[in-house]
Amino acid sequence: MLLEVENLDVRYGRTHAVQSLTFGVEPDEIVTVLGSNGAGKTSLLRALQGLTPIAGGRVIFAGEDLTRLTPPQRLKRRLALVPEGRQIAISLSVHENLLMGAYCRDDGDVSRDIDAIYQRFPNLGSRRDMSASVLSGGEQQMLAIGRALLARPRLMMLDEPSLGLSPLLVERLFGLIVDLHRDGLAILLVEQNTRMALEVAARGIVMELGRAVLEGPAAGLRDNERLAAAYFGDAHT
Q1: Residue 219 maps to a domain
Q2: What's the pTM?
């Protein structure tokens, strides 16, 4: 198991955002986390990256206990988060944003990896010296993913990556997720488009009020009519 989450608890004052959550991600898996707003999905990803303190439980990654490590230490161990809303630095250039993703690295291959990002995302390459503010929403999402790739992650966590994108860009985004997985990247995906998420994932976890209420193969979740009515809404059709 690449990622093991054991009895994870996250609290904000009296709010119990994540409650005794246990699950894992294999090195060759895409796992999606589903649920309504307020279910605790973003709190989960932030806790795994170390951005939100945990109140209990453990986070094991590649056999190492990361529970007390800082976000940079976790990133250096190749656990990377693409946050909700992209959170790129619009005052910096495209190239400078990518360099931020490599700040924990101490090897000499960063330039080569950035060139590979530009080959994968030609629109970013053509705007490398421009302010990130000129990018479209889809291009900003590609920049956020490219920035995370510069950490050479073994597991990439994506928080609502399709939010605000057109249907065409959503299709392209999920094609990219599949391509990254084929390249050997494990993925933990929080996503509002449940239909697309379950198409690319091997397994799904459904959260409600901080708890996992259902977990299983993606195909089984897609065919669960009661679950579709409760959580998926129009995105399932």
Answers
A1: yes
A2: 0.93
